[in-house]
Amino acid sequence: MIEPGRSQVEMPAMSRSFESAAGEVRVYETATAACREAAERIARVVSDHQGRAVLGLATGNTPIRVYERLLELHRAGELTFRDVTTFNLDEYYPISPFDPNSYRFYMHRHLFGSVDLPPNQAHVLDGTVPETAAAAHCADFDRWVDEAGGLDLQLLGLGRNGHIGFNEPSDIGVDAALRLPTRPVELHPITAEDAAQDFDGRLDLVPRRALTMGTRTILAARTVLVLAFGARKAPAVAAAMSGPITSELPGSLLQTVRERVVWLVDEAAVSG
Ligand code: F6R
Questions:
Q1: Which residues line ligand 1 (CB under 6 A)?
Q2: pTM of the entire predicted model
């Protein structure tokens, strides 16, 4: 029953929640409900900062419905991006912003092209910088995040291999893995394999390199919202939430900042 005087906002249906070593876990009946909750939380962060929030955004299949809901809120006049600043996690390299598979294009299609976010406040790593300027561009990106005051909220997906952004599994050790700057990287074979579906199923068309926000910036976000849906993510989710903290599964690094992490998942992602 709806109490008199309370707005009749439909709340996303959560089935259960629990604490994990990598933060609070909220399990939703559907991925759509979890995405709706993510969008509501993003909107709340924007309003908590009087519209001036600094948001870290993700691409991929997982957050598409988050952007759909943000768009609805914007169209309903409940959310403005006029004073928001955004930083995207990553971009293929090299890639044109006009390539439909670029993350710049993705963001334009799913959010930027339909909201009032000023273009010079929407930062996506540039897949067209010259080879010799790529590292400096990435360093600039970290500086821009710092100058904006750091990320109020970072939206994250999790790769099937446990990557966050394109911080891929490696054997560099935990200390180094926690301090990685934004930088050029090579994609892990599993990442390339998963990306192939967007490139007409052709692995040979997937760029093997990318620019990624580093773990240092991601993990410094004041809130980290991690989304994971479906059984194919369950092994990585379980390892991130309860396995050892290791550079071999970058999602496990979230355990080091667990008090700032909230997972919004469906049942299949946590029933490994
Ligand atoms: C995307 C990103 C990646 C994805 C991850 C999951 O900006 O940084 O880490 O979040 O690969 O991808 P999907 O959502 O397609 O399963």
A1: 58-62, 89-90, 157, 159, 163-166
A2: 0.95
Complete DSSP assignment for 47-108:
HHTTT--EEEE--SSTTHHHHHHHHHHHHTTS---TT-EEEESEEEES--TTSTTSHHHHHH
Output the six-digit token pair for 52: 């001036």
pLDDT, average across residues 159-164: 98
Q: Kindly state the tokens that stand for 204.
A: 């040979």
pLDDT in the model for residue 2: 40
Cα separation, 57 vs 155, whole angstroms: 5
- Rounded Cα distance between 111 and 66, Å, is 10
Give the pLDDT confidence of 216-261 residue by residue, as tens digits.
Answer: 999 999 999 999 999 999 999 999 999 999 999 999 999 999 999 9
Diameter over CA atoms, the chain: 63
What is the C-alpha to C-alpha distance for residues 218 and 102, in angstroms, rounded to an integer?
21
* Residue found under tokens 């691409």: 59
| Residue 5 pLDDT > 60 | no
Q: Whose CA is nearest to atom 8 of ligand 1?
A: 165
Cα-based angle 249, 251, 253 (whole degrees, multiple of 5): 90
